[in-house]
Design brief:
about 525 residues; 3 domains; 6-stranded mixed sheet; 18 helices; elongated
Length: about 525
């Protein structure tokens, strides 16, 4: 532990979470506190003795707080090198006191621009000027000054000061790195936002990603690969990265991928819905009047593949649903839902054989995702695109065959079409009674995908089912397969030069076909 004690702290925070207890702990350790405007008032109201920065500098806060800490007596007190005689003489000549601890966090720029319909003037007012300068000054002088830029650092810093009177050089260097990362990320948010305001189109000339590590992972997709999960700064969506884990062992890399897919499916439906994901493809999914029936139908889609799956639900898990899951002879890796009733939680952590290991994740109220973008890494760069979340428009669909689908079949086709976008290309799925009964995913040939979906469904379930294809049929051979299996109706984008051959084949076999005009590849 370094010999010089922390005697004086400058505190100026936007996020006041935990600051009172931290400041009181400093006072108990004989640390003198200087503070500004809103932070000073907040501390004084809590009974913490504070010296007003304006009183110390002799210069008042002005311009609605835009100028308050930007003063030589503040920055010299932070930047002074304590082993330099000339620095110390300058401080003495100008009656400057040294600051040993600087506690600053920044205006909530990211949270402000995340609000719907935020005005550019509001964003500008949330650009912090003095805060980043104070943080950078303290970080630069980390040989002598401790910089605290996040409330989650309070406990460790206070513990060292209370035990030894100062912080270790190791801690100060670690906090320095975190401080520069914090201000760098802050500036990137500002740059990205205003680039988007000034450039036409959704894709600016330069792009930056600001992520904070949420947790490490035991390994990546395979045990020889390292892994971690990062959270995008400013993200407030109900999603896996923002979820709260209520039970079970830690999530794996593959769990995160599968749970993300499971949640993205069920959030698309207004009524009770269940998705069952295996290897990042749905092996089951269903809609029903209540959650337990949706889960029952979802698992009936492909019970063999559902072993070791993850489940996505769009309603709070109730006791009846939990009893069904606990009573069945299958293994569940993880369940994600808006929430879990107390009784349901008790059942899931005490009854089934897999109770100790199953991960239970609460994400809060679900809403459809809109206006999002997705990024995929390439060697040396990335691909960026709008997410495939744009709502389909059934009023634009066209019935291309002589045979017109009934209202019931149209509803089944709409369900199948909503689901096929979540299956890896080439994607074919069969649905019946608002439930997946057969899925052919990720095949190089669309014919193979059709074969697999029919095989998965079996003769009884395939008969009278509807078929969805994520892209057009290049030939009519798949129609013959579907007709032989007893498929009642087909939905697909259309757009092939052989569309008429495909339509003629449907007419020949008495199958209704709907063309949507939009494909849903998922590579």
């Amino acid at each position: 532990m370094d010999s010089s004690a922390v005697k004086r702290a400058l505190i100026s925070v936007s996020n006041k979470l935990g600051i009172v207890d931290f400041a009181k702990g400093l006072v108990e350790s004989n640390v003198e506190i200087y503070s500004t405007g809103g932070t000073r008032k907040h501390l004084e109201q809590a009974g913490v003795e504070v010296i007003d920065v304006s009183q110390y500098t002799g210069f008042p806060e002005m311009m609605d707080g835009r100028v308050k800490t930007l003063h030589p007596k503040i920055f010299a007190g932070i930047l002074a090198r304590r082993d330099r005689t000339d620095d110390l003489e300058s401080m003495s000549d100008h009656e400057i006191v040294p600051f040993d601890l600087v506690v600053v966090n920044l205006y909530p720029f990211a949270a402000t621009i995340a609000k719907p319909d935020v005005k550019i003037e509001e964003a500008i007012e949330q650009i912090d000027i003095g805060g980043p300068s104070l943080i950078r000054a303290a970080a630069k002088n980390s040989d002598y000054v401790t910089v605290v830029s996040n409330p989650n650092q309070y406990a460790e810093v206070l513990d060292e000061i209370q035990r030894e009177g100062n912080t270790t050089h190791e801690l100060r260097r670690r906090l320095m790195a975190q401080a520069f990362q914090h201000t760098a990320n802050y500036d990137l948010f500002i740059a990205d936002y205003f680039s988007g305001q000034s450039e036409s189109g959704a894709f600016p000339a330069t792009m930056t990603l600001v992520m904070s590590r949420k947790s490490g992972l035991r390994y990546g997709e395979n045990s020889h690969q390292r892994g971690a999960v990062y959270r995008q700064e400013g993200s407030r969506d109900a999603c896996i990265v923002n979820s709260r884990q209520l039970h079970g062992k830690e999530l794996s890399y593959n769990n995160f991928l599968d749970l993300d897919s499971a949640l993205n499916i069920v959030r698309c439906f207004p009524g009770p819905a269940c998705s069952v994901i295996k290897h990042n493809n749905p092996c089951g999914a269903a809609l029903a009047e209540n959650l337990v029936d949706a889960v029952r139908k979802g698992f009936a889609g492909d019970p063999i593949s559902a072993f070791g799956s993850v489940i996505g639900l769009n309603r709070n898990v109730d006791s009846e649903t939990a009893e069904f899951l606990a009573g069945e002879d299958f293994f569940v890796e993880a369940i994600v839902a808006p929430g879990f009733d107390d009784k349901a939680l008790e059942i899931l952590v005490t009854k089934p054989k897999w109770r100790k290991n199953v991960r239970l994740l609460k994400v809060g109220e679900l809403e459809p995702l809109v206006s999002s973008q997705e990024i995929r890494q390439l060697v040396g760069g990335v691909l960026v695109q709008d997410s495939d979340t744009l709502a389909d428009e059934p009023e634009q669909w066209k019935v291309a065959t002589d045979n017109q689908p009934s209202e019931q079949l149209m509803q089944e086709l709409a369900f199948a079409w909503a689901m096929v976008r979540h299956v890896k290309s080439n994607a074919i799925l069969l649905a019946k009674d608002f439930s997946l009964v057969g899925v052919g995913a990720g095949q190089m040939s669309r014919v193979d995908s059709v074969n697999i979906s029919i095989q998965k469904a079996g003769p009884e379930r395939a008969k009278g089912a509807v078929l969805a294809s994520d892209a057009f049929f290049p030939f009519a051979d798949s129609i013959a397969q579907a007709a032989e299996a007893g498929v009642a109706a087909i939905i697909q984008p259309g757009g092939s030069i052989r569309d008429q051959e495909v339509i003629d084949a449907c007419n020949e076999h008495g199958i209704a076909m709907v063309l949507t005009g939009r494909r849903h590849f998922r590579h």
